[in-house]
Amino acid sequence: MPSSDRPTWLIPAGLLLLSAVPVVAGGLRLTELAGGARVLPDGDRIASAPLPVIAHIVAVTMFSVLGAFQFAPRFRRRHRRWHRTAGRILVPCGLLTALSGLWLTLFLPPGELDSGALVAVRVVVSVAMAGSIVLGFVAIRRRDFGRHRAWMIRGYAIGMGAGTQFFTQMAWLAAVGPLTTSGRTGTMTAAWLINVMLAEWIIRRRGGTAGAHPAVRGRRARADTALPV
Q1: What number of helices (H) and strands (E) belong to the chain?
Q2: Overall pTM > 0.90
Q3: Where are the beta strands (DSSP E) in the chain?
Q4: How far apart are CA 199 and CA 178, in angstroms?
Q5: Terminal CA-to-CA distance of the chain, rounded, Å?
Q6: Rounded Cα distance, 155 and 95, in Å
Q7: Of residues 132, 103, 135, the one with CA closest to residue 196
Q8: Tens-digit pLDDT profile for residues 122-171
């Protein structure tokens, strides 16, 4: 097996592992909303807007799980039709994730440790995620494969923030103790920044798209099968 192909299964596996905590938490929350026992905190606040919460959980679950397989180059090469079909699902799911998250940020009563700064960060993140997915969709309609890939990587990285937040908050708990308002704001913001910086590193590691002619970007994207989306 070529060295470039050997570790590629680790990428989607790692992304699925990263999404496991929010996906499981979302499943538990759906069970609560369906009348099951409450095992997660903040249940009364979440239950005040069940439809946006359900839409957000279903959309982000589909987005994170399907999106992980877009990072498996050998799988994508062998199943190009699947890649296109999954993309048609990922775009609306990603937009619904971002827009429902924005609605919940603006209209759901704030949590006990939610600060004004965290609300502002969530608004910026939701808008950035939606914008990235729209730009990725526009790029693929123009057959600009390089920009499509770059923007979709950015959108996916933002959408996976909840998974990274588990680790940043665990680090805070281990180093400092129980979360505070500033700790919650800092750990959640740090998780999104980590994901965005990693996304930019991945994009630039393969040459990026800035300054390249669309035709050049398209040829590079088709030739470079190691990049996702």
Answers
A1: 10, 0
A2: no
A3: none
A4: 30
A5: 22
A6: 9
A7: 132
A8: 999 999 999 999 999 999 999 999 999 999 999 999 999 999 999 999 99
